[in-house]
């Protein structure tokens, strides 16, 4: 195992990774921007290295600075967390060039999965079901004939994209040409590549993802699914495991037909379609940890050090877990980020409660990074008990000084539709009129 690891991130995920390192008796080296000098991850680490000024492009995204921080402190590996450099093939290559282990996939795998068309092609070859659509990027004429075959509505997606950027619904042939041009221009602006591909629109759809661990020896362990349909503008708000929308047959089919960390769309008929592979630790990983008892960050570190998975196949699970993201966002301003001074911060405690956060009373949330303050993650024996316990915990949580998404989460968790388990990715948009605070 490693003896010293650099944590190339900030906020709650840096704190999460440092805790895993300390439990494995590994020294943790933090990096920080000038805006984060006083942040919790800097204090918890054994050493900390300043990597640049506040803007992420000059600090947390600055590859030479981050590599230098690892090299000068004698780190054998770098854990990237999520976001920042976690899916950057150039960073992985820089680690490889400096003989530093990147805790994650190789640069080659990362580049292949970052190209959505290539990822789909490889999944198709492995027998994973895909949404009907084009097998690669298409020109307008090919999009037109394919769309007629698939029947409208269809989706245009950016080949270089992901996460919903550069995506456009086309309702009928009359709109195709205009939508194609707009989507291509957006893709060019966002990714420097206008290539588009076509898919049949799956609607209503749930967003369900399967957590997989794979070691360097080719062994694989699956940890079940996470239901991630409660989101707005592609930002997830609440995640749970197991999903109330997945039958045991579907779950088994989704887990045994693949290998990797996989995002799927799930239709109301239990048909599921691979859409993307995320080759990184995800924000919502704790719900899988709570139902399996497996520490995913510890396993990532063990795998990166060349150790073998202790169990393979499908990990046994128990109970139900729910994660609620607490963001510094203002419901009165359409959930715009609302950084500022946190006057009071009272975390919920008691049975079944985990709070992954870096926030404490007196902390000033800087305006330079994302708005995630922390994740409340709750476990109980079954889904109704987990919902009750989450509401109890949200009731205990008190954050004053800045607005947060706490009240929105309470309204969602109290709603009949959430309790029924019958919801899709359009839940928050459709419930805008019923949930007062979610209204646009
Ligand atoms: C889709 C879809 C419906 N049909 N693809 C959005 C983000 C990106 N990962 C893929 N996305 C979608 N792809 C087809 N063929 C609906 C979405 C989608 C969505 C997916 C997951 C979570 C939230 C979503 C919200 C809106 C649309």
Could you explain the architecture of this structure?
The protein has 440 residues and is of the alpha+beta class. It has three domains: 4-111, Rossmann fold (3-Layer(aba) Sandwich); 132-200, ATP-grasp fold, A domain (Dna Ligase, domain 1); 206-439, ATP-grasp fold, B domain (D-amino Acid Aminotransferase, Chain A, domain 1, 2-Layer Sandwich), CATH 3.30.470.20. Helices cover 32% and strands 26% of the residues. It is built from 15 helices and 23 strands. It has helices spanning 11-23, 40-44, 63-72, 89-97, 107-114, 116-125, 140-150, 173-191, 248-256, 285-292, 296-304, 383-396, 406-414, 416-420, 427-430; strands spanning 4-7, 27-33, 47-52, 77-79, 101-102, 154-158, 168-170, 196-200, 206-214, 220-232, 235-241, 262-266, 272-277, 313-314, 320-327, 329-330, 336-337, 340-341, 344-346, 353-357, 364-365, 372-380, 398-400. The strands form six sheets. Strands 9, 10, 11, 12, 13, 14, 15, 20 and 22 form a nine-stranded mixed β-sheet that branches. The protein has a five-stranded parallel β-sheet with strand order 3-2-1-4-5. Strands 7-6-8 form a three-stranded antiparallel β-sheet. Helix 7 (140-150) packs across helix 8 (173-191). The protein is globular. The mean pLDDT is 93. The structure holds ligand MV4. Residues 131, 155, 163-164, 167, 199-203, 205, 207, 231, 234, 263, 265, 275-276, 425 line the site of ligand MV4.
């Amino acid at each position: 195992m490693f003896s010293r690891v650099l944590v190339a991130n900030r906020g709650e995920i840096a704190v999460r990774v440092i805790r895993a390192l300390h439990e494995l008796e590994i020294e943790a080296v933090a990096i920080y921007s000038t805006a984060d000098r006083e942040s919790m991850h800097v204090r918890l680490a054994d050493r900390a290295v300043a990597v640049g000024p506040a803007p992420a492009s000059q600090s947390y995204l600055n590859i030479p600075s981050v590599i230098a921080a690892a090299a000068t402190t004698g780190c054998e590996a770098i854990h990237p967390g999520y976001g920042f450099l976690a899916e950057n093939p150039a960073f992985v290559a820089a680690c490889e060039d400096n003989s530093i282990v990147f805790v994650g996939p190789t640069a080659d795998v990362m580049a292949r999965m970052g190209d959505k068309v290539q990822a789909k092609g490889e999944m198709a070859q492995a027998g994973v079901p895909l949404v009907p659509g084009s097998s690669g990027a298409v020109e307008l004429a090919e999009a037109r004939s394919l769309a007629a075959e698939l029947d409208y509505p269809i989706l245009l997606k950016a080949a270089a994209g992901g996460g919903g950027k550069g995506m456009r619904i086309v309702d009928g042939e009359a709109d195709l040409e205009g939508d194609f041009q707009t989507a291509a221009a957006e893709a060019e602006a966002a990714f420097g590549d206008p290539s588009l591909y076509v898919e049949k629109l799956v609607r209503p759809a749930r967003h369900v993802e399967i957590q997989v661990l794979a070691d360097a020896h080719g062994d694989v362990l699956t940890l079940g699914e996470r239901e991630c349909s409660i989101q707005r503008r592609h930002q997830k708000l609440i995640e749970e495991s197991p999903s109330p929308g997945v039958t045991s047959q579907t779950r088994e089919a989704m887990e045994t037909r693949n290998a990797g960390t996989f995002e799927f769309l799930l239709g109301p008929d239990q048909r599921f379609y691979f859409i993307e592979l995320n080759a990184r630790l995800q924000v919502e990983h704790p719900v899988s940890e709570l139902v399996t008892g497996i520490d995913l960050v510890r396993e990532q570190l063990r795998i990166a050090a060349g150790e073998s998975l202790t169990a393979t196949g499908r990990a046994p699970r128990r109970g139900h877990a729910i994660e609620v993201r607490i963001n510094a966002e203002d419901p009165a301003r359409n959930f715009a980020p609302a950084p500022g001074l946190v006057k009071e911060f009272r975390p919920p405690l008691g049975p079944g409660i985990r709070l992954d956060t870096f926030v404490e009373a007196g902390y000033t949330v800087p305006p330079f990074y994302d708005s995630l303050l922390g994740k409340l993650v709750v476990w109980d024996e079954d889904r109704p008990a987990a919902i009750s316990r989450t509401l109890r915990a949200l009731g205990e949580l008190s954050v004053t000084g800045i607005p947060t998404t706490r009240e929105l989460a309470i309204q969602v968790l109290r709603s009949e539709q959430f309790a029924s388990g019958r919801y899709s990715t359009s839940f928050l948009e459709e419930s805008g009129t019923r949930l007062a605070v979610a209204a646009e």
